[in-house]
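Hey all, quick one. A colleague (J.T.) asked me to put the pyridoxal-5'-phosphate job into the tracker so the inputs and the structure tokens live in one place instead of scattered across chat threads. No bug as far as I know, just bookkeeping. Sequence used:
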Amino acid sequence: MKSWSKMEGMSSIQDNLRQVHDRLASAAQAAKRSVDEIKLLAVSKTFPADAVRLAYTAGQRVFGENYVQEGVDKILSLADIRSKLEWHFIGPLQSNKTQLVANHFDWVHSIDRLKIAQRLNDQRPTDMPPLQVCVQINISEESSKSGVTPSEAMDLCQLIQELPRLKLRGLMSIPEPKESIEQQRADHRMLKTIFQEIQKHRRSPDFDTLSMGMSSDMEAAILEGSTIVRIGTAIFGQRTYL
Ligand SMILES: *Cc1c(COP(=O)(O)O)cnc(C)c1O
């Protein structure tokens, strides 16, 4: 992992978090929403545990990781503050990695097939609360991106609701980067429409989460009803490798 200067990291992460909170507040105001409805998920992928600890010191509690082993290593090296943190897994998930995710994370945003959901359900330790999950939707329907198509979403959500060790919370998407806020909003609006359709048929009152919006499109996402924004670059800085 890249070298990390604690002094430098401290002031920049603190400043960046403050700026992101300001953006969140302005966007919520523009959308006539309460800022309390929107959870800020700090995406710490590629950054060391020290960076997470600095963000924690600055008041941040919710963190997201994309790569299983990297995320678990970070969670374990921050074991002393584990009970204060909420860890979200947001990356592509292969069958052979579900056990680690079930054992260590609080949330998974990237469920895209039943087999993964079933494994997480079977592997979730009984002394932990149910794993909170979102189904990932491929809004742009490109073959290269993960996520189910909008037409597959309803069935997958119905099946996940049967799994007792998972709690289905909502939907997530990673739209293609778009230039204009109008184009960004159109993608987010599409996810919200699918969300509302599933909400009509849901069995649980906890289907309340729209995980959408990243550093470059969080305003558009909040205007369209996002309840979790996943922010990496604007908090931790540019990533030097993926
Ligand atoms: C990396 C990543 C983010 C954060 O992206 P930024 O543009 O750095 O804010 C959010 N969501 C997912 C799924 C990611 O992989």
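Adding what we noticed when we looked at it: Residues 43, 45, 66, 90, 174, 214-216, 230-234 surround pyridoxal-5'-phosphate (CB under 6 Å). The longest helix spans residues 6-30.
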